[in-house]
From TrEMBL, chains A, B, C, D:
Pfam families: ThuA. Transmembrane segments: none annotated. This is ThuA domain-containing protein. It comes from the Archaea. Residues 4-218 form the ThuA-like domain. It comes from Halocatena salina. Residues 225-246 are annotated as: Disordered.
Amino acid sequence: MTTVTVWNEYRHERETDVVASVYPDGIHTVIADELADHGFETRTATLDEPEHGLSETVLEETDVLTWWGHDAHEEVSDAVVERVHERVLEGMGLIVLHSGHYSKIFRRLLGTSCSLKWREAAETERLWVVEPSHPIAEGLPEYVELSEAEMYGERFDVPPPETLVFLSWFEGGELFRSGCCYTRGRGRIFYFRPGHETYPIYHQETVQQILANAVAWAAPGDGPVSTFGNSDPIEPIDTTDDRTVH
Amino acid sequence: MTTVTVWNEYRHERETDVVASVYPDGIHTVIADELADHGFETRTATLDEPEHGLSETVLEETDVLTWWGHDAHEEVSDAVVERVHERVLEGMGLIVLHSGHYSKIFRRLLGTSCSLKWREAAETERLWVVEPSHPIAEGLPEYVELSEAEMYGERFDVPPPETLVFLSWFEGGELFRSGCCYTRGRGRIFYFRPGHETYPIYHQETVQQILANAVAWAAPGDGPVSTFGNSDPIEPIDTTDDRTVH
Amino acid sequence: MTTVTVWNEYRHERETDVVASVYPDGIHTVIADELADHGFETRTATLDEPEHGLSETVLEETDVLTWWGHDAHEEVSDAVVERVHERVLEGMGLIVLHSGHYSKIFRRLLGTSCSLKWREAAETERLWVVEPSHPIAEGLPEYVELSEAEMYGERFDVPPPETLVFLSWFEGGELFRSGCCYTRGRGRIFYFRPGHETYPIYHQETVQQILANAVAWAAPGDGPVSTFGNSDPIEPIDTTDDRTVH
Amino acid sequence: MTTVTVWNEYRHERETDVVASVYPDGIHTVIADELADHGFETRTATLDEPEHGLSETVLEETDVLTWWGHDAHEEVSDAVVERVHERVLEGMGLIVLHSGHYSKIFRRLLGTSCSLKWREAAETERLWVVEPSHPIAEGLPEYVELSEAEMYGERFDVPPPETLVFLSWFEGGELFRSGCCYTRGRGRIFYFRPGHETYPIYHQETVQQILANAVAWAAPGDGPVSTFGNSDPIEPIDTTDDRTVH
C-alpha cells in the first residue's frame, strides 16, 4: 500500500479567519482525508512540528510526499530540504501544490526561479486536459471548471515539463501550464497549480480525483538501483595504461 | 559577436606532469584558442583567480561560459555559483565539460546527483550522433572516434535531456548519454562528456568543431524578458472580491 | 541564402469576396513578400498549378516549405505528399499554418488525427510565449494579441511537441498549443496556429516576425547524412555464425 | 483484466529450419504463453489468417497489440493498417518488436523511415536501463546481457522518444535506442529492439519481464474522450460576426 505524507505550512489557517472558514483543521487534514478515502495510507506533517514533521524515519516510510506552502518557505530548514531532496532522488514521489512552486525543495529540484504572474480576484479557471492518456487524467472530463481561483500566469519559469497534463485558462486573459511532470533521480514529481487557501478548491471532488491519480502515478516502483563510481570493465580490455590522475 | 568565457579549475596541469605534457598552458588556453579560431571573442578564468575570475562584470559580459572542473568542485564558492546560476537563468549559455558533471553549478541547475560510472583505462570511445539535424551536429561525421578516453557509464543521474545529441560507446562494455541539451530560465545548457585531462581530446579537430557548434547554439537570443509577480487583468473582470491573503 | 517556397491552396481568395478583400492576391503572396523583406529567397506554389507547383526540382531547391490549406486537403495528390514527406526526412524545413493542421502532409508526419475544436466568431486570441529562449521567440513581446481570430481549442490531437513555444488564450474559454516544434528525419517542423483566411492575421507585423523566425529555425543544416542498412563491424568480432535469415 | 493480442508474421518459423528450431510453434505462441503467465488475457493473430487475424471485433476486444514482422511487411493490407492505426488513436496500446520497426503501422504512427543499421553475427548486446523509475524497468537489473543478438545501430530514424528507457551496446562498436516510448492520440506505443528470429531472445526470462511491463504500461486508461469540431463558446462572447467561410 502506498503511504502518503501530506505536508502543510499550516499558518494561514491558524492566523486568518477567512482561511480558517475554508479549512478549519488545515489544508493538510482535508487532503489527507481525501487520499485515505481513495485507499492510501496517509499521515500529515506541518512546519511548526519538530523537524517540520519530516524526520528521517517519516521520510523513509513515505512513498509520496505532498507539499503545500506559501508564506514561510524560508523557514523550512535547509537540512530538511536536503533530506527531502535525497529521498526524491531515491524514489519518493513528490506532489507540489499551488504556491509550493516557490518552495525551496521545488526550486532545488527544478533548478529555476519557478516565478510566475499572479492575481487574487476569485476569477474563473478552466483546467483543460491536454494529455488524456496520462494516468493523472484518469476518470476526468475534458476540462474542470473552478469558479473562484487565484490566477497564475505564464511565463512559469520552470524547465519544459517532461509531460504536460493540464493547461489552465483564466478569465482575466492569462493561461498557465498547470499540471507538469518531472523525473529527478528515481523520483517522480508532479506540480499541480490549483489550490489557494481562501477558495475551497481541495473540497472539490474532481480535484480530489486528480490528487489521488497523481499520488498513484508518483508512487515508487522497483526499477534497478543504479551503482555509481569506479567500475571494472565488463568486456576484456587492456587496463595497463598508467596515466590515471584522480 | 558572441563572447565566451572559458573557465578551468587549472590545478592538474600545474601539479601533475602527465597532464602538463598534454595541456602545458592549461585546458582553458587550448579551448579558448580554438574558439577564437572559430570566430568567437574569448577570455579565460580559473579557480585560483579572485572570485575564480568570475566577477559580476565578467559574467555580465559573457554570452556563453564553458566549465571544466574535476578535483576541486567544493572549492568553488557558493556566492560565485549563485552568480553563475542567476546569469544562466537570465540567458547566458553554459557548456559543461566532462568531469564538470559534478560541479556545483551543474548539479544546482539540474537538481540531481549527476553521478555516473567511470574508469580510466585509455579505452576507445565512439561518439555517435543520434540527432543529426541539431545545430550542435553541424559538419560532423556519423560518429567520432576517440582512441583513448576515460569511460563514463550509465546510469547518468540527470533529468532526461530535452535533446539528446550524442551517445558514447565504450570498449569495456558501457555506453553514455554524452551530449545533452537543457533549458533553465532563458539559458541554454549543453553537457559534453569527452575531455579527460590526461588524454589530448581537446586537441582533436572534430571535438573543437563540436565545442564551437555548442557555443553558437547556447548563445543568448533576444526573446521576451518575462515579467513576474502581481499582474493586473488584461480582460475586464470583477476585482472586488476581498478574500485576499498575502 | 535560405530559399522558401510558400504553398497555398489559393481557392478561398478566388471564390469568396470576404477573403479576397483581405488577401486579394492570395495568402501566399503576402507571406512570400514578408519573408522576402526578412531576407529570404522566396517563391510561391499553389494547388491548381501542375503538380501543385511542387515538382521534384522545386522541392530540391527548397530549404523551407510553408503550407496553408483548408478546404481542399483531399485534392492534394498522394504522389506530391510522398515527395514532400521524403524531402522533409532529407532535411527540408516545414512550416504548417493554421488550417494546415488537417493537411495530408502534416497528419502523415505526425501520425495522429490532428483534430481540434474550432469556432469562427472573430474573438480575441492572446498568443503567449512560454519558451522565451527559443529562436522562434526572437524579438517578440511576452504575448501577441490578435483582436479577431478563429478559435482552435484543445484537445489538439498531436504528439506532445518536442518544444512548445506558444500557447493561445481565447475569449470564449478555450486554449491551444499554438506553436509546436517537431523533428522528423533530418527535417524540422513548426506548426503555427494563427492565420484564418477572413481575418488579416498575416498582415500583422509581429506575426510576420514569427514566420521569419520559424523559417530561420527550420532551415536545414549540414549535420551528418546517416547511412542505413547492412553494416560491417567497426570493432573486430567473430562473424562466422551461420544462422542468418534475411 | 488487460487483453493482449500477439501478432506475428509467422513465416520464418514455417519456412526455415533454424528458426523452427528456436520457435517451433511460432514467436507469437511463446510471447502469448509468457504474457498469460504474467496474468494477461491473451490471443494470437498471424499474417496468413483472414484479415491477418485482426478483424474489427478482435481489435475492439484488444487492449494491447504486440507486433512482430520482418519479411512480409508489404503483405499487410492497408485496410488492416488503417484499422490498427485508428484503434491506437482510440487508446489501444501497441508494442512493436525488433524488425517490426519497418512495419507499415510503426512507420505510419511515427512519420519517419524508421531505418537503421543492422548486422547478423550473433554478437553480444548489453541492454542498459537509462530511466530506472519508468514502469517498464520494474524488477530489472541495471543491464540485461544478450549473448547472441542481431545488431541494430544508430542512426535510428525515429522521432526523439518521449521517454527513452533502454540503450543497447553492441560488441561490434555500435549502440542503439532500444526502448522508446511514444504517445499517439490516446494510445501508448513502446518499441523494443531485442528479438531476432534465429536467437532465443524471447525465451529469456528478463526479456519476458520487460514485455509484461510494457503491456501493463501500454494498457489503456479511462482518461477523457476528446470531442472535436465546431464548439460553442463556454464564456459569453459576441457571435454575430458574419465573415465565416467554411
